[in-house]
Amino acid sequence: METVEAHGARIPIVGFGSMRLKEDAGREAILSAIGNGYRHIDTAAFYGNEKEVGDAIKASGVKREDLWVTTKVRDNNLQADDFARSLDNSLKLLGLPQVDLLLIHWPNPQVPHAESIGALNKARRDGLTKHIGVCNYTVALLKEAHAVTNEPLVTNQIEVHPFLDQNKVIEASRGYGMAITAYCPIARGRVPGNPVLERIGAAHGKTASQVSLRWLVQQGIIVIPGSGKPERQKENLDVLDFSLSPAEMSEIASLKKPDGRVVNPPQAPKWDV
After folding, report:
1. CA neighbours within 13 Å on the CB side: how many for 42?
2. How far apart are CA 152 and CA 60, in angstroms?
3. Where does 176-244 have alpha helices with state H?
4. pTM greater than 0.90
5. CA of 228: how far to CAs of 34, 67, 203, in Å?
6. CATH fold group of domain 10-188+220-228
7. Would you say 57 and 67 are in contact if contact means Cβ atoms under 8 Å apart?
8. Which of 34, 123, 199, 213 has the most CB within a 10 Å radius?
């Protein structure tokens, strides 16, 4: 599996997003993903499935050191004591003494960066996570976070797919040596059926979804697609054996549109435009 390096972290470029996968069916889907070859599993306290992820890891028989496990602390738990409690609970549910990557899930303007990023730093110093990073941080928020962090922030996990122009925040993140992790890399089902992506896929014997994922990984962006269906899991992983031409890359980039964002909850920051 190809990896992306950032501040000493080597992150598998194709990961498995576990959001919405819960209870017995969820655990079986996560176990299936590991069986299909995923070695990077992304979860979060907010997903309510860390126990299922932990159970699947145990049942998989794959060595812990061969897996990359990411979890996140939600925006309502960013004060230092709440942060520590949230992380402790996540580790208990996962059945792990340490995760590979711990992220702040959403920024919270009510909690100073010195406190939230400070709590993130402490988790790394205490050995509860190997690496740390953030999600949904804008150019301005990245600047504020880097002004107070004493530990390297290895990734910014953001929504990225062909219909959304994220060039400003991608450039800013990379300026700090951060990797980009793309959530919703197939735009929550909006990619299949797009005529441009379908046409390019047909030329390569691939699906439109595989083209979207390939477009991202070819830019060195980590992707974390998720599916409960084993056949779709295999399809999403099978994007490292073909290349898009420069003309195809440009044509896909031209699909961006002003209303392309699919995730914009009430707690979202003021996005870069």
Report:
1. 23
2. 31
3. 195-204, 208-217, 230-237
4. yes
5. 12, 19, 27
6. TIM Barrel (3.20.20)
7. yes
8. 213
The domain ranges of the chain are: 10-188+220-228
Residue written as token pair 């050995």: 127
Candidate list 38, 47, 137, 183, residue with the active-site label: 47
Closest CA to 173 of 161, 155, 160: 155
Do 223 and 217 contact (CB within 8 A), yes or no? yes
Q: Cα angle at 256 between 222 and 168, to 5 degrees?
A: 60
Strand partners, 183: 159
CA atoms within 13 A on the CB side of 67: 25
- Tens-level pLDDT at each residue, the chain (273 residues): 999 999 999 999 999 999 999 999 999 999 999 999 999 999 999 999 999 999 999 999 999 999 999 999 999 999 999 999 999 999 999 999 999 999 999 999 999 999 999 999 999 999 999 999 999 999 999 999 999 999 999 999 999 999 999 999 999 999 999 999 999 999 999 999 999 999 999 999 999 999 999 999 999 999 999 999 999 999 999 999 999 999 999 999 999 999 999 999 999 999 998
C-alpha distance from residue 209 to each of 103, 165, 178 (Å): 26, 18, 25
183 is catalytic: no
Tokens 């914009």, residue? 264
Task: Give residue 65's identity as a one-letter amino acid code.
Answer: E
Q: Please, what is the Cα angle at 58 between 3 and 12, to 5 degrees?
A: 5
d(CA 256, CA 148): 33
